[in-house]
Amino acid sequence: MRTKHVIVEDYNLEWKNEFERIKNELLVILSGKISSIEHVGSTSVEGLAAKPIIDIDIVIDENFEEVRQSLESIGYIYEGDLGVSGRETFKYQNKPHLMVHHLYVCNKDNEELLRHIKFRDYLRQHKEDRDKYSEIKKDMAFKYPEDIDSYIEGKQPVILEIYKKCGLCE
Any transmembrane segments, and where (predicted)? Predict the structure, then answer.
């Protein structure tokens, strides 16, 4: 069991603004080198409860080394794909002016990127499923406040149900 305190909050309108602040800082060094910067994950879906961490996918077109060097020049540290092929992960230190965030770099046709976008867009358009997902997240965070693995496992049935509805699995 990995112990990690699990906090799930009701949707916060500030998350959108916080994403924009991070995006604008990234664009200073990435403008012209990338396809887009996508706000993904639960904080990107208005009305969805979430852990207060911004998930960001930087979308590239086969120029990872150039983007990696640019990110490293402003304090991001490359961590590899952490077991998810084609989704390169970066951590950071000394960015107290930015909200806590996870930063990933993916090629534009990467399966994980496409899954993030499809899931996000589906939840943005389907309030009933969004609300159901919110409830299971809150329930699992309450039930497993110190066990991230059980929290994740507890959400799986609802996630898979939504995946089926939006065509991400059979």
Answer: none
Q: What is the pLDDT of residues 95-132, one digit of tens each?
A: 999 999 999 999 999 999 999 999 999 999 999 999 99
Three-class DSSP category at 39: strand
pTM score? 0.93
Radius of gyration of the chain (CA): 16
Give the domains, in start order, of the chain with CATH numbers: 14-124 (3.30.460.10)
Contact at 8 Å (CB) between 67 and 34? yes
The rounded distance, in Å, linking the Cα atoms of 17 and 35 is 21
